[in-house]
TrEMBL record:
GO terms for cellular component: membrane. The keyword Hydrolase applies. It comes from the Archaea. Pfam families: Abhydrolase_6. Keywords: Hydrolase. This is Alpha/beta hydrolase. Residues 22-264 form the AB hydrolase-1 domain. GO terms for molecular function: hydrolase activity. The keyword Hydrolase applies.
Amino acid sequence: MAELELEDGTIWYETNGDGPPLVFVHGGWMDGTAWEPQVEHFADDYRVVTPDVRGHGETGRTEPGQYSIGLFTDDLEALCSELAIDRPILCGLSLGSMVVQEYLDRHPDGAAGAILGGAVRSMPPIELPTDVKSFWSPLPALSASLSLSGTEATFRSMLYSIQATTGQRWLSVDPEIRADAIGEVGDISTAEFRKIFDALYRYEPPALTGVETPTLVVHGEQEAPLVKRQGQQIVSAVADGDQLELDNSGHLVNRDRPRAFNAATSDFLAGLPA
């Protein structure tokens, strides 16, 4: 892996292949290896970049006491600058989809294309006023759970709540993929877990109405209905948006259906302006 030295931490990332830059941003409590099926598929034709976001993977803990989607986006901009990438093709999953949306809002025509897997605009996936979110914040209960049970058990509890509410096999339809994802959460410290959750919860999604970047939103069939609705909002907001649902897949749609996800991404890339 390579390092990007910043004033308040070091971002670790990998690059594979040569060609147009294709940058993948992973989901919360994961790391760049979540994109292995995509790296293997696209590295023959693209320069594939997979960073580990702050608090995750090899990057791990960094200095700020509080993370934000804006900070993660600052890091993405710094990485693109470091690698002399002017117009990246961006692909984000879940938390990564928020980072890509923030990047698009800052640079409405600054990316060649954007793919949003498991796209979500806010957590919870209902956009609440800031004062309401502050009043009903789950952070105190989350902190208590982390102190008593640790990161993996807390994440399992979150998953059970989502499944009970939606009736969907939300995270993944594949028990092995689900177990791997939960196990990865156990490698994250309670302090970093809390900072990542806080960044997700506090994020206020941009309107995206000025975005000219061609954008594809991909959800799994078992995705939470409210999240799918937010995907529709993204597609309606941008100037050139499309939405796709893959059957037999959940939130981790790129891992549940890697061949179908890669095929959809390839078709989308082939249709981008030269």
